[in-house]
Design a protein that fits this description.
The complex is a heterodimer of chains A (114) and B (114). Chain A is mostly beta strands and 114 residues long. Chain A has no helices and 11 strands. Chains A and B meet through strand 4, strand 5 and strand 10 of A and strand 5, strand 6, strand 10 and strand 11 of B.
Amino acid sequence: KAGVTQTPRYLIKTRGQQVTLSCSPISGHRSVSWYQQTPGQGLQFLFEYFSETQRNKGNFPGRFSGRQFSNSRSEMNVSTLELGDSALYLCASTLRGDRGDEQYFGPGTRLTVT
Amino acid sequence: AQSVSQHNHHVILSEAASLELGCNYSYGGTVNLFWYVQYPGQHLQLLLKYFSGDPLVKGIKGFEAEFIKSKFSFNLRKPSVQWSDTAEYFCASRSSGGYQKVTFGTGTKLQVIP
């Protein structure tokens, strides 16, 4: 079974621009979560989608948004980029089990804002 | 809000030394607990998980963790580390039930010296 795929893997943008990142979960997984990983803050939860609905949201400004499509693929968008948005953005695909949920992470998209 | 604390930010060990990485979580209800590992240049991988039952959980590559409810702890252990264990380790918690976000600790960088 293929793992979680994220595109693009690397991205360089300038301040003020907007960016869209894509994530394809493991086949059969219907839940997708997004995280921002930075050296100082570790992994910060952005949002989770299940069946095209946002189920949970972290403490990020409204510039960060996301969506999920009927095939479970998800995109996140960051508008009006700031230097502080430079980070590794991780997508996780969730296997929902009777006892609990397990997350499987993709390789991430490295975003650099200049 | 939930929080996860990892007390050791950077640990240096010699090969064959024993490892114990501390993790404390804040949520007082029923939680699912996880340890993830991120090898240099690779994506996050699940090492082990605790949902319920036996508090001593065994994971991949000889790692184990013990859930101690009274101490809100889920420490990671390995009796004898190898150079290939050099990586960053993240503890995470998720309150069980519904769509609950996963909260990560800030990570512990482990460096194993040959």
